[in-house]
Amino acid sequence: MSWKEWFVESNCRVRAASVCYAKHLIAAGTALISAGWCSDLSAQDLEPRAYSNSPVGTNFVILGYGYASVHVLTDPSLPIENVSNESHIGILAYARVLNVFGKSAKFDMIVPFAGLRAEGLVVGQPHEREISGLADPLFRFSINFIGAPALTAAEFAKYRQDLIIGASVRVGVPLGQHDDTRLVNVGTNRWSVKPELGISKAIGRWTLELAPAVTFYSENDDFLRGKTREQTPLYSCAGERELHFRARLLAGGKCRLFHGQPLDG
């Protein structure tokens, strides 16, 4: 390979990794806020290639937009029926790839802003709610223990993935909009902590990922006029497979399993 071919391949691989990670941060944030205000499955976000390698020092500043329109409220514990709702979600995200004792690591944060409109029957009476505001921001630190050393951009161009094993911790901070006189809010008024184990294996053009996790929640002690709302730990196991065609083109699919339910007091 000539130096020109190496330079082109290096730039393509670094750019492809950066664009791929940016798209996945936007998808994760949009999925999170779309699910967060209408259910308690806020840990459903699965970021594909979350444990892949990227050049140290790479920064991502991302603006994203998502739209969701649904007609079924997925949280059966709320006394709401015949619901239709739509939401517009803006995402501001930042991520940086780090060198932690020679291992590749990432710090990222997602700050969502949402505007939503919902209508339905609350205890048999018709109600409508239109609201906008900041949702709960998320902060995450992840590190790859095996198979993904900290690399410069030049070193990353020669890197080929085999088996990667890593872990992460994500924290949700209750800074989002919350009105204790309303059932539907953008924020959740509670902390969440999600430790996760990540395994990623490259087999030819395929990349397979498995990510078991558990999310713990604090109490929402100001839910609907002073009531307390609790959430049992939410156990999840996410799987992902991707087929790589070229440096900038891939296709994939995912599977998610969850177990957990809210408890109102």
Structure explained in plain terms:
There is one protein chain. The chain has one domain: Lipocalin (Beta Barrel), CATH 2.40.128. Strands 1, 2, 3, 4, 5, 6, 7, 8, 11 and 12 form a ten-stranded antiparallel sheet that branches. Strands 9-10-13 form a three-stranded antiparallel sheet, with no helix packed on it. The radius of gyration is 20 Å and the shape is elongated. It has 265 residues and is mainly beta. The protein starts with a helix and ends with a strand. A hairpin with a 2-residue loop joins strand 11 and strand 12 (249-259). The protein is built from two helices and 13 strands; from the N terminus they run H-E-E-E-E-E-H-E-E-E-E-E-E-E-E.
Secondary-structure content class: mainly beta
Which class in CATH terms? Answer: Mainly Beta
Report the helical percentage: 10-25%
Order of helices and strands: HEEEEEHEEEEEEEE
Give the uncertain stretches in residue-range form. 1-10, 34-44
Instruction: Kindly estimate the percentage of residues that lie in beta strands according to DSSP.
Output: over 45%
The gross shape turns out to be elongated
Number of strands: 13
Summed up, the helix count is 2
CATH architecture: Beta Barrel
* Mean pLDDT across every amino acid position: 77
Concise synopsis of the structure shown:
This protein is mainly beta and 265 residues long.
Task: Give a quick set of tags describing it.
three-stranded antiparallel sheet; 2 helices; mainly beta; disordered N terminus; 265 residues
